[in-house]
Write a structure and sequence with these properties.
Keywords: ATP-binding, Nucleotide-binding, Phosphoprotein, Transcription, Transcription regulation. With about 450 residues, the protein is of the alpha/beta class. Helix content is about 45%, strand content about 15%. It has 20 helices and 16 strands. The C terminus is likely disordered. The chain binds adenosine-5'-triphosphate (ATP).
């Protein structure tokens, strides 16, 4: 049994805090309880073993809280608890790195099981020296998996831009590997021996953005008890990766533009400019052009950042990479938690390859990790899939169609998911989709997924 591990409970109601705290105390955990408003920087700085966030404080606030936590203490597992059955929130939480998502009323056994599992999985993971426990230790291109044409082009372009000092804008949905590419660019650049510093704008509270980037002097605002170096200075001679640049407020955008043009920063409260030599790589999952049209992103900053644009495709557009990713993640995860690599049933493998993965590579990795950690035998099957996936997430049940998706992609996704649900049976799938088997076969052939369906059908009973 774990002894006196500390759990931080962020929950806005006093009775809710008391119930959770009593319950965890009974199970020998030490708990600290706060409401979101009470949460202070020193609590984030202190060492806690797990964070429990109540989503009923408002989905967006809780998700922001999660992002902030993952940015500052990526190694600390966060469990989200919610009475909402909004699948989008659950998906968003998992995409942003929640270790688990529990629906209220939470069965006490389930809560304890989740707490113990999340802590165990973190303890067994590699030491938290990197910004993410999921990242390989050598973070060059050699650790980025992808044999699809789209990824090969990205690698080629990224290697080329690594040699320059140009600003790079990496675009792509959350979890597609933007940060991984940014770091690989840095590791392959002449700045490789200098710092690679990251900052996620979506995770920094609005009033702290400028202090985070440019630093502040002691006493320059309430709470500034010490002078603090900003991320630009921390990245001096190296690379600064600014994630979710689209979340910058207009006022800060003007200041950022000035730094990019003059290479000088002025910490808050100081009247002295400081020279910084920093290469900026920015990333966003938003359509910046649209934000520019709406007046929410400065056009001049957009052009200044967009000198070189690398567009990472979502995982559903490069299914051919999934089998490789699965193989690589299974090896990594099993090595990290020192487990023998379990076998994957043919149905499960087929499911993983055909799933649309709205949370992209991150979600695929989290799914595999959760299955491996919780597995009781040496073989993983469809029954081992996390609940959220088994309940149809990623199948677009609510039909939320991502912007810019082509009809053909939708059709392909619908067909692949239906085949997966019907264990590769084309007759049942065609019937359920309201098309003839012949049409279904023609489409599969045209998309080059005939083999997968065949091999699945052959192995379907294994
Ligand atoms: N091609 C890949 N090969 C191996 N691992 C990958 C690949 N792409 C992403 N990952 C892994 O997926 C996770 C998410 O990647 P990353 O943080 O780089 O995505 P992102 O696009 O920056 O996400 P966000 O926009 O949410 O910050 C990480 O654990 C990363 O190591």
């Amino acid at each position: 049994m774990l002894k006196q591990q500390t759990i931080l409970i962020i929950e806005n109601t006093t009775p809710g805090r008391a119930v959770l705290s009593d319950f965890l105390t009974q199970h020998n955990f030490h708990s600290i309880t706060v409401s979101q408003e009470q949460l202070a920087v020193h609590q984030i700085e202190q060492s806690v073993d797990l964070v429990l966030i109540d989503l009923d404080q408002g989905d967006q606030d809780a998700l922001q809280q999660l992002r902030y936590w993952k940015n500052h203490k990526p190694e600390t597992p966060c469990i989200l608890v919610s009475s909402s059955d909004n699948i989008d929130t659950a998906v968003a939480a998992m995409k942003q790195g929640a270790a688990d998502y529990l629906r209220k009323p939470v069965n006490s056994q389930k809560l304890i099981q989740s707490v113990i599992t999340c802590m165990r999985s973190t303890r067994n993971a590699a030491p938290a020296v990197s910004a993410s426990q999921h990242r390989p230790s050598q973070r060059g291109f050699e650790n980025i998996v992808g044999q699809s044409g789209a990824m090969q082009e990205i690698f080629e372009d990224a290697r080329r831009v690594a040699q320059t000092d140009s600003t790079v804008l990496i675009t792509g949905e959350s979890g597609t590997g933007k940060e991984l590419i940014a770091e690989a660019i840095h590791r392959n650049s002449p700045r490789a021996a200098e710092p690679f510093v990251t900052v996620n704008m979506a995770a920094v509270p609005e009033h702290l953005v400028e202090s985070e980037l440019f630093g502040h002097t002691k006493g320059s605002f309430t709470g500034a008890t010490e002078s603090r170096r900003g991320r630009f200075e921390a990245a001096h001679h190296g690379t600064l990766f600014i994630d979710e640049i689209g979340d910058f407020k207009l006022e800060s955008q003007a200041k950022l533009l000035r730094v990019l043009e003059n290479h000088t920063i002025t910490p808050i409260g100081s009247n002295q400019d400081r020279h910084v030599n920093v290469r900026v790589v920015a990333a966003t999952s938003h359509h910046l052009e649209k934000l520019v049209e709406k007046g929410r992103f400065r056009e001049d900053l957009y052009y200044r950042l967009n000198v070189i644009n690398l567009k990472l495709p979502p995982l559903r557009e490069r299914n051919e990479d999934i089998a490789l990713l699965v193989d690589s993640f299974m090896n990594q995860i099993c090595q990290q938690i020192q487990r023998e690599r379990p076998e994957l049933s043919a149905e499960l493998h087929q499911y993983l390859v055909n799933h649309t993965w709205p949370g992209n590579v991150r979600q695929l990795r989290n799914c595999l990790e959760s299955m491996v950690v919780l597995s009781k035998s040496g073989r993983l099957t469809l029954d081992d899939l996390p609940d959220m996936l088994r309940n149809g997430e990623g199948v677009h049940d609510g039909i939320v169609i991502p912007e810019g998706i082509r009809l053909e992609e939708l059709e392909r996704t619908a067909i692949q998911q239906t085949l997966s649900r019907n264990h590769g049976n084309r007759t049942h799938s065609a019937k359920s989709l309201g098309m003839s088997v012949r049409t279904l076969q023609r489409k599969l052939k045209a998309w080059g997924i005939r083999e997968q369906a065949n091999s699945f059908a052959r192995n379907g009973s294994s």
